[in-house]
Amino acid sequence: MNLTLYQIDAFTNDLFKGNPAAVVPLDYWIDEELMQHIAMENNLAETAFICPGMTEEVDFDIRWFTPVSEIDLCGHATLASAYVLFNIMNFHKEEIILSCKSGILKVKKDGDVIWMDFPSWKPERFNDYPSELQEALGGVEIVGVYKHRDLLVELMNEDAVKKCIPDFGLINKTGYKIIITAPGKEVDFVSRFFAPTVGVNEDPVTGSAHSQLIPFWSDKLGKQKLSAHQLSQRGGLLRCEQNGDRVMMGGNCVFYMKGEITI
Prior knowledge:
- This protein is an alpha+beta fold.
- The chain has helices spanning 32-42, 75-88, 133-136, 158-163, 168-174, 207-221; strands at 2-10, 19-25, 46-52, 60-65, 70-71, 95-100, 103-110, 113-119, 124-125, 142-147, 151-155, 178-183, 189-195, 200-203, 225-230, 236-243, 246-251, 253-262.
- The model has no long low-confidence stretch (mean pLDDT 97).
């Protein structure tokens, strides 16, 4: 069996920045264990597999795998998949409708920017967080802790987010994926994302985290349209909009590589 693999840098205009994702288009679903092995071999934060939809209402089904497990929602690998469909596979519609474990996702292209319609996951105040959380985040001063799918930890300012030195072993012991965030200096908010529980110590740019971040900051700042910067080493920029029970995330992609998997 030969499979084509594309590697795309998402949420960036520059090669070697943003978040790299592998995209593997399929004609039919292959064995789940095989998909996990491919993701492990790629050793990227996520490998996306896309397959033609099973119904007329859906263009493609999409699944995402980290090196160690399948996850229920991934932004940057969805952005990368849309880039492949629009720019390489010449998908002819203006909008791609995707089905995934988190429901229906819609993706549109506006010039060089790809916009994703994702669920809005507003995190709620969470007081029952692990006692070692502050230590796991290098002793930073915590303003507040919130939770939806992941823990969202508000810090004092951008410098606190940037200078945070996490203990990934302790974070792993908490059992949570953790977002840290604060108001930005040149953007509305900044963040970082730690997920050693699924084999990714620090994710460069995390669309699914912004399903929590956008409603959080939209409510806090009283704004529907926001700008965001994820402060990983590679870094990434997102255009964001809160729209009822959905959020919009816009970003750019850069093509890096096309390869062939032989199994």
